[in-house]
Specification:
With about 500 residues, the chain is an alpha+beta fold. The protein has 14 helices and 18 strands. The strands form 4 sheets. Strands 1, 2, 3, 4, 5 and 6 form a 6-stranded antiparallel sheet that branches. A 5-stranded antiparallel sheet has the order 8-7-11-10-9. Strands 13-15-16-18-17 form a 5-stranded mixed sheet, covered by helices on one side. A hairpin with a 5-residue loop joins strand 17 and strand 18. The model has no long low-confidence stretch (mean pLDDT about 85).
Amino acid sequence: MSSLNDLVTSVGANLEPDDINRLHVLVSDWQVLADFALADAVLWVRGKDGRFLAVAQCRPGTGATIHLDDVVGLYASPMRASQLAQAIDDGEVHYAPDMRWAGSYSVSEMHVPVRVRDRVVAVVSLETSSQSLRRNSDSLGWFEEITNALAAMLAAGRYPYESAPTSSSHGIPRVSDGAIYIDNDGVVQSVTPNARSCFRRLGFKQSLEGRVLAEIVSDLVATVDHVDETLAVVAMGRGAWISEVESASGTVSLRALPLTVDDERRGAALLCRDVSEMRRKERELLSKDATIREIHHRVKNNLQTVSALLRMQARRSDIPEVKAALGEAERRVATIAQVHQELSQNIDETVDFDSMMSRLIRMAAATASPDQRVKTRIEGSFGRVDADAASALAVVLAELVTNAVEHGFEHRNSGEVLVIAAREEGGAATIHVIDDGEGIAPDRALSGLGTQIVRTLVSSELQGTIEWTRREEGGTDVVIHARLQSYGS
C-alpha cells in the first residue's frame, strides 16, 4: 500500500510540507475520534483535477466497521465528492443529507474539514452504521457530545493537540479501555463501565459520577511516595497529556483530552487504562536486570580477589617456572574480570567489545614484557558481543597478543601488534592478530598451554576455527573465524 506522502503527491494536491506533517500528526492520533464517533474515519485529499482521494483510514474500536476492504487509494463517488468539497470550501462540519445503505444497515456521514493555520487542507469523513448506534445507545449522548467537540476543534485547527502523545506510546489508553467525561470544574458527568473498573482496581469502590475526579485521584495517591507532577493537570482535564495514577492496589494510565468549542472550554474527556500488570512486569524486569548486573559485579570482585591472590603467591615463589605459571594464570583471570566489569554496567547480556578491547590488548602487551616497547593497534569494529562469547574472545585475544609479544619479539625490544576485526552477517566475524616480529619457526610445534587454551575456546565457545600462518614480510598472522552473536540477535 502506498504511503500517505505518495498518495498526496500522486494527485498533485496543493499541500505544503507543513500541511502534510500535520496530516501525519492527525493520522497518528485519530483513533480517539473514530472511537468516540463509533465510526470509520477516512482522510480525503483533493487533487488538481478536483477529485477526492482517500489517503488514510481508521476503523473504530468501539463499533462495527463500515469498510470490510481498505478504501485507501480509491476516489470518492461524484455525490460524496460534492459533499466533501462543501466541507472544504465552507470550512465547517457538514452532515450528509441522506443516509446510505451498506448491506442490511444504513450509514450516516459527518464531513469534518482539516484546518492547518488559516486554510483547509483535507476532509475527514466519519461514517457510522446504524448497527453501532443501536449497540451503543446508552453512551450515545455524551459520546456524541465529545465527537462534536473534537470535530469542531479539528475544523478550527485545534485538534490534534500539539502536545498529544503518539499512539505508539507504551500503555497509552484508548476509548475502549475506559472513558470519563468531566465538566469545566472537573466534576465527573459520565463514565464507561471499563473506566469504572479501572478505578475499582485502584481501590475506589464508590460511584464516580458527581465527584471531582482530581479529589478522587488525590486521595488514591496519598499513600504513594512518588507522584507524577503532571497528574493534577491531567485529572482536571486542563492539559492534553498523559499521566499515571498509582495506588497500593494498582496503576492506571490517564490521558486528558481538553475540549474547546468557539474559544470556550467544554470540559474534557479522559481516557484510562489499567496498566497494573504491565508495570508489574516492567518492575520485575528492572529488578532482574539489576540482579544480573549485581551478579556480574560480584563475580568481577571475586575474580579480582583471585587475581590478587595469584599475584601475591607468584611474588612469594623463588622458582622461575612457578612464578611464570602463576603470572599467566593471574593475567587470564584479570582478563575475564574485565569482561564481567563491562557486563555489570549493561542492562542486557551483551558487551560493547570495542570499548574494552584497546585496554585489554594494551594490558596484555605490557604484562607480557614490561621492558619492550611494543605498540598495539585495532582496526575495524567488533560491535556488541554476547556475554559468553565476550569472555572467551577476551581470553583468546589477550593470549594471542601475549604470545606475539613474548615470542615474536624475543630478540627485539620494539614492534607492533595489529588486531583487525571484520563483522559479517549472522553474528559471525573474521579476526586477524598480526605482528611484525620474527614469525613462527617452520619446525615450531604449537602445543603450549596458551595455544591449547586458545584452540579450545575458539572451537567450543566461539564455534569457530583458528589458523597460524607465517607472513612473507615477517611476523605472524593468526586468523580466527568465530561467532560473536547467537542466531537472531
